[in-house]
Each structure stands twice: as structure tokens, then as C-alpha cells.
Write a structure and sequence with these properties.
Layout: H1 9-30, H2 36-59, H3 65-82, H4 89-121
Helix pairs in contact: 1-2, 1-4, 2-3, 3-4
The protein binds fe (ii) ion (2 copies).
Length: 126
């Protein structure tokens, strides 16, 4: 899984880290392992990822910060619900394959791309 690289490097770093954890989670699902710990690690990472972007959007007054945060909130809600279904391996495989991963790719190619363009244009330094 190769994510689109965008024009604000700190966001790419956050995304690349998430993909690593996502791969670990996906392997654990395929191998029918106990998922509690890896799922918590993944969920925490997604929360850190989203709040990193939201903090910067607020700080620098990004014009689409509200719809961007709404997308984050929607997917985070789904991921939290899944915590109660970690023994349903086939559904999990299907969810990540057909829903979360396509969503993440699309989100990065749209919302995150525009947001990164804004941050790099105004010269945000981390
Ligand atoms: Fe992102
Ligand atoms: Fe985002």
C-alpha cells in the first residue's frame, strides 16, 4: 500500500507511520490473532494523526477546517464502534479492504492534499 505523498512533509511522516501500523493490524487480522493490543495502538495512532492536522488547521485558520474535521470524526466513530467487534475477522478484513483503506487513500488525495498545499504555501514550520 503506497500512499500519495503530499506537499507538507510532516503530514507525510504521520501518514507513513500510520501505514506501518495498519499493515501490522491487517496481518494480525489475516492470521486470526488476538487484536486488542494492536487495535488500541492503531486507534491511538489515528487519533494522534487527526488531532495533529486539526491543531494546525486551527492554529493557521485553514478555510476548510470544519469539513476536514467532520471527515475525521466520522471515520473515528466507525473505528471506535469496531472495538466491540474484534472477533469478527471476516467483517474486519472486509471493512479495512473495502472501506477504511479506500477512504484513507481518498482522504489523503483530496482533503489532506488541499490542507498540505495550504500549510506549505504559508510556510508552516514544525
Ligand atoms: Fe491525514
Ligand atoms: Fe486529514
Amino acid at each position: 500500500m503506497q500512499l500519495k505523498q503530499i506537499s507538507f512533509e510532516p503530514m507525510n511522516e504521520v501518514h507513513n507511520k500510520e501505514v506501518k501500523i495498519l499493515k501490522k493490524l491487517f496481518n494480525a487480522i489475516k492470521n486470526r490473532e488476538k487484536l486488542e493490543d494492536i487495535y488500541d495502538e492503531f486507534l491511538k495512532d489515528v487519533e494522534t494523526h487527526f488531532s495533529f492536522e486539526q491543531k494546525l488547521m486551527n492554529e493557521y485558520g485553514f478555510f476548510a477546517k470544519i469539513p476536514h474535521k467532520m471527515e475525521h470524526d466520522r471515520i473515528l466513530n466507525e473505528l471506535k464502534q469496531i472495538k466491540n467487534h474484534l472477533d469478527e475477522y471476516e467483517n474486519l478484513e472486509k471493512y479495512f479492504d473495502e472501506s477504511f483503506i479506500p477512504w484513507l487513500n481518498n482522504h489523503i488525495a483530496t482533503m489532506d492534499t488541499v490542507t498540505a498545499g495550504f500549510f506549505s504555501q504559508i510556510g508552516v514550520k514544525i
